[in-house]
Design goal:
The chain is mainly β. The chain has 1 helix and 14 strands; from the N terminus they run αββββββββββββββ.
């Protein structure tokens, strides 16, 4: 009996986790989304991705990014590096530009009893973004993800957790992993991703995939 109860608790946790997990990606496979081509230093009003948590305090939903993959489909010619930075703020920073991204629930089985696919509280934009002025911005992480220009299909993996930082090659494709630590976006808060490259004159484009979870799921 105890084993059955323990298994039931485990199944409930598994069910709850995946019911509240979402995937956001560019809509067309193998077609990247262009970024800003003249960003040669950090700019608070230029972004590559923006996530706004539209939940109210009463709803209580927190967004936790889990993994972000960036695959270069157009290279940043003349750049000597490529850097990214995450900033959290207490307002919606997106102003204009980029592509609005429609997330999907990674939990797609609606045949299970009492299962209703949740609706995410995230509003996500990716591409050449114009951001509003910061209100109460906090720096959460900065990485130099490449020390040269990208080659087509170079891939950057951002893992929002602790762990050993490691880069490795797969055939001729450069694949680099960066553990940047956990981040959370509270109700009414915003996470912006900024990107730039020294001497960058051509805009890189990226096929991307963001996986994130929302806690608690109250949909």
């Amino acid at each position: 009996m105890f084993d059955q109860v323990a298994q039931g608790v485990k199944d409930a946790k598994f069910h709850s986790l995946f019911k509240s997990t979402f995937v956001a990606t560019n809509p067309t496979p193998e077609t990247g989304i262009a970024s800003t081509d003249d960003t040669v230093a950090f700019s608070a009003t230029a972004g590559l991705m923006n996530i706004y948590n539209g939940a109210t305090n009463a709803q209580g939903n927190w967004i936790r990014p889990l993994h972000l993959k960036l695959r270069a489909t157009a290279v940043n010619t003349s750049a000597s590096d490529f850097q990214i930075q995450f900033n959290r703020d207490i307002i919606n920073r997106w102003s204009s530009g980029g592509s609005a991204i429609t997330e999907v629930s990674s939990f797609g089985n609606t045949d299970i009893s009492d299962t209703t696919l949740p609706t995410s509280k995230a509003t996500i934009y990716f591409g050449a973004l114009v951001l509003a002025a910061a209100s109460s911005s906090v720096l959460l992480g900065h990485e130099i993800v490449s020390d040269t220009i990208f080659a087509a299909n170079d891939q950057i993996n951002i893992i929002f957790d602790y762990g050993p930082e490691a880069g490795y090659n797969v055939d001729a494709v450069e694949v680099s992993n960066f553990y940047i630590g956990p981040m959370a976006i509270g109700p009414g808060h915003n996470l912006s991703l900024h990107a730039w490259g020294n001497s960058m004159a051509a805009d890189p484009a990226f096929e991307f995939r963001l996986v994130y979870a929302e806690y608690p799921n109250q949909n």
